[in-house]
Amino acid sequence: MATFNYSGSSFYYNDQPVRLISGAIHYFRTVPEYWQDRLIKLQACGFNTVETYVAWNLHEPKKGEFHFEGMADLVRFIELAGDLGLHVIVRPAPYICAEWEFGGLPSWLLEDSDMRLRCYHEPFLDHVDAYYDVLLPMLKPLLCTNGGPIIAMQIENEYGSYGNDKRYLTHLKDSMISRGVDVLLFTSDGPDDAMLQGGMVPGVLETVNFGSRPVEAFNKLREYQPDAPIMCMEYWNGWFDHWHEEHHTRPAENVAEVLDEMLSLGASVNFYMFHGGTNFGFYNGANGHTFDSYEPTTTSYDYDSLLNESGEPTPKYFAVREVISKYVDLGPCELPAPIEKKAYGRVEMKEQTALTANLDRISVPIYSAYPETMEKLGQDYGFIHYSTFISGPRPKDEFFIQDLHDRAQVFLNGQLAATLDRTRPEVKLEFEVPADGLHVSILVENLGRVNYGPFMRDCKGIKEGVRYGRQFLSEWTTYTLPLTDLSGLVFDGLSEQAEPSFFRGVLVVDDPADTFLSMEGWIKGVVFINGYNLGRYWNVGPQKTLYVPSPLLKQGDNEIVIFELHGTSEVAVTFVDQPDIG
């Protein structure tokens, strides 16, 4: 057993003063085979603590169905950290932000049209408590008070940036305590009056999040909490990327200078991020700061952090270590051997098949008067295909998708007529309807639910309806396409691509190693290797390659399936040994 608490301006571990030098590593953004490698590198940099969020949507993807294996094996990740002698800070659900899909909330919450999020709304709290009933007993043996490495746990996350419902925050606190959580509890918010007033909980330690001006931030914190240690729970030493943007970077020298200033003040710190990792699959989030803004996050979560996306130390790593060595006796830097990277070269796609030819093989038709959202149909991520018929003749009029979330390709009699996007309202689609009518089909992509701010109620698909002129269109056939099982696809030979299509090829590997998949020449889509969803690619950048960790490969044949929405200049991909994320 151990104790971790604070008195005055200092933290104490077993009654000995301790300064926390912590780094964020998200178990759900790194393959389990590499968890130990990343943790050893964190420790070698002079850190004594690792911090992680807990992604509710990863662990309860369907209501009442829990998953804690593989990349979701939170207990194993914490145990590995403890075996290395690291302290662990856990920031559990319900909400984590993290540029993660829906801020970690499970999409099935939105099936209830009356659901209220992140407040004292009993149906929401019932779901949270049911999840805590499963999660917290798993963490209880890992608390330092029970001999484990967990020294502290967070209540909610940056709640003052969202609301001020203290009854809700108190419920979360009580829910954790009643389930045996007896370690230090804390909150974290921006160093702003409204944020601190909204996010603080009586009797709970408050920490602050920022990327610069630590004196100013800590002074604001002390106004509200004068007799407690100062800690930056999120030191933003890098930043995340959106599609259509440039890759964000921050000079290592600047990161080191701000860290030095924080440590000279006697503060504790948690780097957000120490190692970013990857938004595999459809788990990237999005920002939507206003009603009509929407910015989806890239597959790469490199974050310009101390370890890059594939886990290798960057100049920032060594600059930070040098600063820490001024305050802690570190000794020599002993790093694990670099993980092997290989350029496997060019792989041609040999087979192809159109989406519409396979709808009944990978989905089941649903009939409704109006288009329904993904959530109403029990779908979490991926794509959704709607189709109907417009009778004719009709003169030219405008075609409206009312409240589209997020990006739609519209086909008239099988021919692409327009690509509509919620962020590009200036794009219009007008057409005439001939006497024999038109078959209309719409493929909508969920680009990631909003993970931060006031517009998180981000249902996907078509939220309101579809109109031709003033008339709403009815009699829809819908196929949900989460793309979790592609075994039903039937492939043919290559042909000219006329619609969203799947391509298949084989990468032959003698010795599996880390590699990076270049999608040069392709426009937009998703890549699967041996059935594993690597994530999205998009030629708008900044990201140009997809990271492929070696544990996803096997000796011999490795199946590559690409779902391309538009087309490619060359039906081949190239595996390289260096990333290109912008």
In the CATH hierarchy, what is the architecture of the largest domain at level 2? Alpha-Beta Barrel
* Molecular shape: globular
* The CATH homology group name of the largest domain: Glycosidases
Straight-line distance between termini: 47 Å
Low-confidence stretches: none
CATH topology assignment of the largest domain = TIM Barrel
Family: Belongs to the glycosyl hydrolase 35 family.
Protein name: Beta-galactosidase
Organism: Paenibacillus anaericanus
GO molecular function: beta-galactosidase activity
List keywords for this structure.
Jelly Rolls; Glyco_hydro_35_CS; 8-stranded antiparallel β-sheet; beta-galactosidase activity; about 15% helix; 8-stranded parallel barrel; Beta-galactosidase; about 575 residues; alpha/beta; TIM Barrel; 10 helices; hydrolase; globular
SSE topology sketch:
Blueprint: E1 4-7, E2 10-13, E3 16-18, E4 21-25, H1 35-44, E5 49-53, H2 56-59, H3 74-83, E6 87-91, H4 122-139, E7 150-154, H5 166-178, E8 184-189, H6 193-199, E9 205-210, H7 214-224, E10 231-236, H8 252-264, E11 268-275, E12 286-287, E13 295-296, H9 315-324, E14 345-354, H10 359-362, E15 366-368, E16 383-390, E17 394-405, E18 407-412, E19 415-421, E20 430-433, E21 438-445, E22 450-452, E23 461-468, E24 471-472, E25 476-481, E26 501-509, E27 515-518, E28 524-529, E29 532-538, E30 545-548, E31 556-564, E32 572-576
Parallel strand pairs: 4-5, 4-11, 5-6, 6-7, 7-8, 8-9, 9-10, 10-11, 12-22
Antiparallel strand pairs: 1-2, 2-3, 12-13, 14-26, 14-32, 15-25, 16-21, 16-25, 17-20, 17-23, 18-19, 18-21, 23-24, 26-31, 27-30, 27-32, 28-29, 28-31
